[in-house]
Amino acid sequence: MKSSYLIEELDKLYPDARCELNYNKDYELLIATVLSAQCTDKRVNSVTSILFSKYDINTLSIENEKEIEKIIKPCGSQTKKAYYIKTIAEKLVKDYEGRVPNNREYLESLPGVGRKTCNVVLSNLYDVPAIAVDTHVSRVAIRLGLSSKNDSVLTIEKKLMKKLPKENWSRLHHQLVLFGRYKCKAIKPICQECPFINTCKEKNKNI
Description:
- By secondary structure, the chain is mostly helical.
- It is 59% helix and 0% strand.
- 34% of the residues are buried.
């Protein structure tokens, strides 16, 4: 598939694609993205509306983890995620006065922050060209033949970066997420509305 066609069709479907996690401050996006692991954005937004109304970065850094756990329990893995949140808050307050830096190496050193989370944060906060590969992007990339079934997340990211124009990476990331979330779903994809059906590697399974 030509990248120009992919871009054209996704622009039609999602002309205003953006991150669906709610945030008002830089650290809120970082924490929300950490919470989104194995959890829907809708549930994360429900949880963070409570979490961020009760705490700022400074109070999070000194709060007891058990109290954080109570709030974030609906997101799952609350013990581990509470530790991540408190430790991230502590480090940001200590190292950057509570701000999230444009520093990939530093961000990826934080607990619970991997390459995908870092890509989301840098792309949205600092307009750094990046493609964050989550389960939706991975599924779409494989079905459309942009990557292979056994590719690692990093391999998928590298293949997409090679095939797609750099100036479109961040926008396409959001569009691919939305396309995978609402149309090219893992279960019961809406193939009749797919402009890429002739390219899909699984079309005979889903139609």
